[in-house]
Specification:
There is one protein chain. The protein is of the alpha+beta class. The chain has a seven-stranded mixed sheet, with helices on both faces. A hairpin with a 3-residue loop joins strand 6 and strand 7. The longest helix is centred in the first third of the chain and has 24 residues. The relative contact order is 0.14. The structure holds zinc ion. Zinc ion (ZN) binds next to loops.
């Protein structure tokens, strides 16, 4: 009990500290790119709720979307459990992780994951960071995550592992500044996902639907791969060429069908 309280107060404290960094440094907050597209906002709210309902996010983890009006701005929620996020909780950020107007609210300390991926990857328009337990084993062993079924063709080029200790020594494991975010984005390279050793994963996509769909099916692939390997370590993975054809063929139809279902459920329609 004592431990829980301590950790909670610590997390709340560091989030508040982050929110106040600009005020302390006397730096001006970045200018807003203007109101984001209403459909983008609605999809981003849905993304938080969908990933919580699918068990990919729990009380932690987050989703963001690049601003439709400015490539150097992105939108994500204030520090809040994903299933509780509404449009009023969304905040605009620049690529240094500064909020345009946090209104005194606490921020996610790991927003630098998103900021630095947007900086490094112009093709990315949505990012998910989660701590799904299914993916953790593949970041802490020498077993690479590979596609075991057609829904996971998007990892056909491999899933790199980011080990924060290699560059930053002993840390609290969080990607809580720009330097750590940059190192993570470098490890991601041109791939769709990067595992974070002993922590979780970051997943990217050209739309919110892709980033959410990939997050759901990466979780499924991790479970199915572990099951297959338990039966027999000699698993017939998708060939890289098969995975490539899946991606070229529009990758699971852009996740349109499950997205429609997930969004309706998540938004109570
Ligand atoms: Zn995290």
């Amino acid at each position: 009990m004592t431990k829980t309280i301590t950790r909670r107060s610590f997390l709340a404290g560091s989030a508040l500290l982050a929110a106040n960094t600009l005020l302390i440094s006397g730096q001006q907050p970045p200018a807003s790119a203007g109101a984001a597209d209403a459909a983008l906002i609605a999809d981003l709210v849905a993304a938080y709720r969908i990933l919580a309902q699918q068990g990919v996010l729990d009380g932690f983890g987050h989703v963001s979307a690049r601003h439709n009006r400015a490539a150097n701005r992105f939108i994500m929620a204030r520090s809040l459990a994903p299933e509780l996020v509404t449009a009023a909780d969304l905040i605009e950020f620049d690529l240094d992780g500064n909020a345009v107007d946090a209104k005194g609210r606490a921020l996610y300390s790991e927003r630098f994951i998103h900021a630095e991926i947007y900086r490094a990857r112009p093709d990315v328009r949505a990012v998910v960071h989660n701590h799904a337990p299914s993916v953790i084993p593949f970041g802490v062993t020498n077993v690479p995550m590979r596609p075991v079924f057609h829904m996971a063709g998007f990892i056909g080029n491999g899933v790199p592992v980011f080990d924060i200790r290699k560059m930053f020594g002993m840390t609290d494991m969080l990607v809580s500044d720009s330097a750590k975010g940059r190192a993570l984005a470098q490890t991601l390279g041109d791939k769709t996902c990067v595992l974070m050793r002993g922590h979780g994963v970051a997943i990217v996509g050209p739309t919110i639907q892709y980033a959410v769909g990939r997050s759901v099916y990466l979780d499924v692939n991790a479970k199915v791969q572990a099951q297959a390997m338990a039966l027999n370590p000699n698993v017939a993975y998708l060939d890289p060429q098969e995975a490539q054809k899946i991606v070229e063929g529009g990758e699971n139809r852009g996740y349109e069908r499950p997205w429609e279902l997930w969004k309706a459920k998540a938004m109570g329609k």
